[in-house]
Specification:
This protein is an alpha/beta fold. It has 2 domains: about 210 residues, Response regulator (Rossmann fold); about 150 residues, 3-Layer(aba) Sandwich (Rossmann fold). It is about 45% helix and about 15% strand. Helix 2 crosses helix 13. The N and C termini lie far apart (about 85 Å).
């Protein structure tokens, strides 16, 4: 009796071990792509949420087409909550424990700059689909191998577009800047001044504010008194919403342009939909840009109807497809070989923002530049392409940087 029980127990244990081994093998066979971005911690978290939706849509499409190298693709998601220590921990786990073949993210440039050394040392490709700090892809550009890439809007490139538009739209040749007092805002002011100088102009006024300030009427009154009829904002969406409310208080409504941070819904929630429509901002795409954008926006909104920010979904979708193309070309998930493929993709990759023809080279790891950008604005709670005569008249020669 006891021998029979022992035989059954051994058989069951053996079956369990075999099942676990099979599950482990199946798990190991998945090609795992990591995503590390703020999805809950700051006002920019919705950019990370939208990016996650773009990744999920891309993975769905890849798997419907048969996966990569005959294997299923799985997204491994992490929320860094906008905190550098958490972001560093997440990347370490994704690479060391989850064995991802590449990392997408983050939202926050400071978080990226805190952990880029990890994938660079471990030879794991990173494609940044949201964060915009210029230094991100340049930190390791002089190394023998640079594993950091981007499909997003670089700050300096955005500034070039904003200034080009401001110079053309201003009637009295007076453009003013108002920026937050953080490193983000003050670096933006430096870029704006340098680029405006390339157009042969000086700012009519330069003002700054604290990122938590709620009343900017004093700064705006100085800008108004300078005679400026065009103002460039350089702050995050919640602070920019307070600027709009302050404009309303003093009934001063110059042409107002800003960076793509204005695509975050705090602008809508704090300023209100109608006031938010006053801001023109840089963007890589919009929901009405092309058939692929329309299709992806429809898919995302069917699953997540509350989502307002679409652009980071598009950029993360494209980042995933570029990484997939490199894995296919390399014929392996080995990070070093995938990085070589990214530097010289042989075939065009159809994305949402655009079709990418050799988007990266050994010396340039930015898939988008100012010539790919457009201007957009809020309309009925959605980001749409700006269609005006000034935008249509912009030429490559106007985009000085």
């Amino acid at each position: 009796m006891f021998k029979r029980i022992a035989r059954i127990t051994a058989a069951l244990m053996g079956a369990a071990v075999m099942a676990l081994m099979a599950a482990g093998t199946a798990h190991a066979q998945d090609i795992r792509i990591g995503y590390n971005a703020d999805q809950s911690g700051t006002g920019a978290a919705e950019l990370g949420v939208a990016g996650r939706y773009g990744l999920e849509a891309a993975v769905e499409d890849i798997n419907k087409a048969g996966g990569l190298l005959g294997r299923k693709v799985t997204a491994v998601l992490r929320d860094d909550q906008g905190q550098p220590p958490k972001s560093i921990q997440n990347v370490t786990e994704l690479i060391d424990s989850e064995k991802v073949v590449g990392v997408l993210g983050p939202v926050n440039s400071g978080n990226a700059l805190a952990w880029l050394h990890i994938p660079q040392q471990k030879k794991i490709p990173v494609i940044v689909p949201i964060a915009t700090a210029t230094e991100i892809t340049r930190r390791y550009q002089n190394d023998a191998r640079n594993f950091i890439y981007r499909v997003s809007m670089v700050d300096r490139e955005q500034a070039a577009l904003l200034v080009a538009y401001a110079v053309k739209v201003t009637r009295n040749k007076k453009v003013a800047f108002i920026a937050d007092s953080t490193g983000f805002g003050q670096q933006g002011t430096k870029d704006l001044e340098e680029i405006l100088n390339l157009h042969g102009m000086k700012p009519a006024a330069v003002e700054k504010f604290g990122p938590k300030d709620t009343d900017m009427t004093s700064q705006l009154a100085k800008i108004r008194d300078s005679g400026a009829d065009t103002v460039i904002l350089y702050g995050l969406a919640d602070a920019n919403a307070q600027i709009l409310r302050s404009m309303e208080k003093i009934n001063y409504f110059p042409t107002t342009v800003g960076t793509w941070g204005n695509m975050s819904t705090p602008l809508l929630n704090i300023a209100g939909k109608k006031l938010a429509e006053h801001v023109i901002f840089a963007t890589s795409t919009a929901e009405d840009s092309n058939p692929k954008a329309i299709e992806l926006a429809g898919r995302v909104r069917t699953k997540y109807p509350a989502l307002a920010t679409f652009v980071t979904a598009a950029q993360t979708y494209d980042s995933t497809m570029l990484l997939a193309a490199a894995i296919t070309q390399a014929g392996t998930t080995d990070g070093a070989k995938v990085q070589i493929a990214l530097d010289d993709l042989n075939s065009p990759v159809a994305g949402v923002v655009k079709t990418y023809q050799k988007p990266f080279t050994k010396t340039n790891h930015e898939a988008l530049d100012v010539s790919d950008f457009r201007l957009g604005r809020w309309k009925d709670g959605r980001v749409v392409t700006l269609q005006d005569d000034i935008t249509k008249s912009l030429t490559p020669g106007d985009l000085k940087k």
